[in-house]
Amino acid sequence: MSEASSLRPRAVVSKQPSQSDKAPPPTTTRTEPETPKSPSRPPTLSQRAISQTLTGTANLANLLPTGTLLAFQLLMPIFTNNGSCDSATRPMTLVLLFLLAISSFLASFTDSVKSSDGQVYYGLATFKGMFLFDYPDPTGSGLPDLSKYRIKFIDGVHAVLSVLVFAAVAMRDKNVLMCFYPTPKHETQEVLDIVPVGIGLICSLLFVVFPTRRHGIGYPVTSGK
Question: What pLDDT, on a 0 to 100 scale, did the predictor assign at position 67?
């Protein structure tokens, strides 16, 4: 036999895919049904009124003179020893509150004027006009008519309201409350919670109805000044 006839074709063996070569079956994830959330209840009318009143009381500090408010925030923790008053610090805290209240009262009578050269000068309103603190010319040349800056009835109203606002802010301060009323009774606690809110609401309404026309120390001067 020839060499070509001796070569036999080999049988082709097809390789069966093994179990490991097969693609894994797709995994199905079960999604839990979402539990419906209960709708949030809107606040009632009384809750909204209380929230607005407390917000207005918190913003009462904007009606106080900047210097008085800054001194109150800086000195009150020091004088009250962070609310832990004793026989020595309690009278000093009371004197500090009195002086700051006087400062709020007097700041309502301060005003500012603009001279002909564009400089702003501050002073204290009087019954005849206004007494300037730092104006160099005693004759008052270059100044507008100071008689229109004299004290009016509305200035006294604003001064009293400023003192009441300061009292409301002080009664809401935790250091002052811990100093004078460390363990208040139930009736006292009710008074401390209600009175500042009432004072703040009434004073805020009166300040809106009777706005101040003065631009005291630390306040901007309008173009009309």
Answer: 82
Instruction: Pull the structure tokens for residue 40.
Output: 């949030």
The span from the CA of 135 to the CA of 140, in Å, is 8
pLDDT at residue number 52: 52
DSSP codes of every residue in 28-91: PPPPPPPPPPPPPPPPPHHHHHHHHHHHHHHGGGGGS-HHHHHHHHHHHHHHTTTT---TTHHH
Q: Provide the edge-to-edge strand list for the sheet that holds 110-114.
A: 110-114, 120-125, 130-132
**Selection from 118, 123, 99 nearest residue 215 by Cα:** 123
Q: What is the pLDDT of residue 57?
A: 47
Element (H, E) at 97: helix 89-107
